[in-house]
Amino acid sequence: MKIAYCLPNAVLTNNQLSEIYPEWPAEKILAKTGITSRHVTSKEETSLDLAERAAKSLFDSYCVNVEDIDFLLLCTQSAEYKLPSSACLLQNRLGLLTTAGALAFDHGCSGFVYGLSLAKGLILGGMASNVLLVTSETYTKYIAPEDKSTRTIFGDGAAAVLIDEGVAAKIGAFSFGTDGAGSEKLIVRDGKLFMDGPEIFNFTLDIVPKTMENVLQKNGLTRDDIDLYVFHQANKFMLDTIRKVNGLPRDKFYVNMDTTGNTVSSTIPIALKQLDEAGRLKPGMKVMLMGFGVGLSWGATVIGI
Amino acid sequence: MELQEKLDKIADVLDVDAGTLTVETRLDDINWDSMGMLSVIALAKTNGKTVAGAQVRAFETVGDIVEAAF
Fold first, then answer.
1. Domain A2-168 matches domain A170-304 at the CATH topology level
2. Model pLDDT for residues A250-284, shown as the tens digit of each residue
3. A50, A81, A277, A298: most buried, per Cβ within 10 A?
4. Domains contained in chain B, number
C-alpha cells in the first residue's frame, strides 16, 4: 500500500507539558501514554493544509500521476467550512481532474477503516479505479489549555493512501459497530473537546475482543493466521491493557506513538508506514486493522500485504 | 489474595511507594487523577472485573479500590 503522512512542524514535548502541569512529570506522561512529543498545528494551519501536504508527499514519494486518481475520499472532523465539502477544496488544491469524484466523511478513530471499506466498495463496484484516501485531523485546536488529560494524548496529523485495484483485492471483509448512545463520552461542544477517559477506556476494552472475533470469523481466519495487529494508536497504556486482557503476543502487536501522539484517523496509516519503513511488512502477511473511539464508532478489517 | 498484596498492586499502578497505602488512605491525599483512574480500571480488568467510569470517579479511599478491583 502506498502511504505518506504529514505532521505539522510545531512540537509539544512532555517537558513543556510538565512545566505547565508540575504534578505530571515528563517521565510519568511517557510511561502512561507512550508519547514523548506530539505535533500541533499553528493557528493558521488547518486540517485541509495537512491533508494537502500528506497527499502531495504521497505523489512525490511514489511518482503518482494525479490524472490517474478518479476518486478522492477525505476523512476529517475538522472541516474547513460548514459548506462546501473539504473534499472539493482538496480536489482543487491537489489538481485532481474535475471528472474525479470527491467525498468527505466525518469519523474519528474508526475513520481509516471506514475509508478502506468505501474505497474497496467503489473499486469493486466499478465506480473507480484509483482512490486517494486522505485522513486529516487537528483535535488540538479543540483542546482547552487546562485539559491536561487530552492535551498529553492528542497530536495533529494527516495521512494519504492510494488504493488501486490490486490493493483493493487484498482488503478483506469488515466488521463495523456503532453506539450513538455513547456520543457524549467524547464530544466537541461549544468548540471544546470533552473526553470521559474512564468510559472510553471501558468501551474499548468491551468492544475490541468482540470485534476481533467477528472480523476473524468474517474472513475465515483464526488468531494464528494474523501476523500483525495494527490497532488505533490511542495511547500506550490503553493498547498495553488491550493486548494483555486479550492475550495477544507482544511481537505481533504494534505500539508506537512516541513522537506523533494520538492523531485520530491517521494513527493506523502512520503505523503501517512506520512498519513498512522498518521492513516489517512482508508479502503474504495478514494484518488486522482496528479503529475505535469517538461516535462511539468502531471498525476492523484484515489486509494482505 | 492477601490484603497487603492487593495494596501493593494498587501502590504499583498508582505510582506511590509500596507499603504506604492502607484501606483508609484517602485518594485526595495521593494525587488521585485521570491516569490513576485508568490504571485502576486496567487493574480490575486484568482481574476479570469491570469498573464503570461513574464508579471510579466516586471512589474516596484505597479501600474502595480494593473492593472493586479484585
1. yes
2. 999 999 999 999 999 999 999 999 999 999 999 99
3. A50
4. 1
Selection from A131, A191, A183 nearest residue A161 by Cα? A131
The 10s digit of each residue's pLDDT in A132-152 is 999 999 999 999 988 988 999
Q: Pick the catalytic residue from A6, A39, A107, A232.
A: A232
Fold of the domain spanning A170-304: Peroxisomal Thiolase; Chain A, domain 1 (3.40.47)
| Contact call for residues A241 and A205 (beta carbons, < 8 A) | yes
A268 phi/psi in degrees, rounded to 5: -70, -50
Give yes or no for a contact between A300 and A212, defined as CB atoms under 8 angstroms apart.
yes
- Decide if A288 contacts A164 (C-beta within 8 A): no
Among this protein's residues, is A232 annotated catalytic? yes
Interchain proximity A197–B38, CB inside 8 Å: yes
Per residue in A81-119, pLDDT (tens digit) is: 999 999 999 999 999 999 999 999 999 999 999 999 999
Residue pairs spanning A and B at CB distance below 8 A: 51
| Closest Cα in chain A to B38 | A198
Rounded-to-integer distance, Cα B32 and Cα A44, Å? 37
Question: What is the pTM assigned to this prediction?
Answer: 0.94
The share of chain A scoring above pLDDT 70, in percent, equals 100
Write out the residue range of the structural domain in which residue B56 sits.
3-69
Residue B31 has a pLDDT of 77
ipTM at complex level: 0.86
User: How is chain A split into domains, by residue range?
Assistant: 2-168, 170-304
Cα(A63)–Cα(B9) distance, rounded to whole angstroms? 54
Tell whether B37 lies on the interface with A, counting CB pairs under 8 A. Answer: yes
Known catalytic membership, residue A202: no
Determine the residue of chain B that is closest to A243 in CA distance. Answer: B46
Assign residue B52 the CATH number of its domain: 1.10.1200.10
Chain A closest-CA separation from residue B38 CA (Å)? 6
pLDDT band for position B33 (cuts 50, 70, 90): confident
- B3 CB within 8 Å of a chain A CB: no
Q: Which CATH superfamily is domain A2-168 in?
A: Thiolase/Chalcone synthase (3.40.47.10)
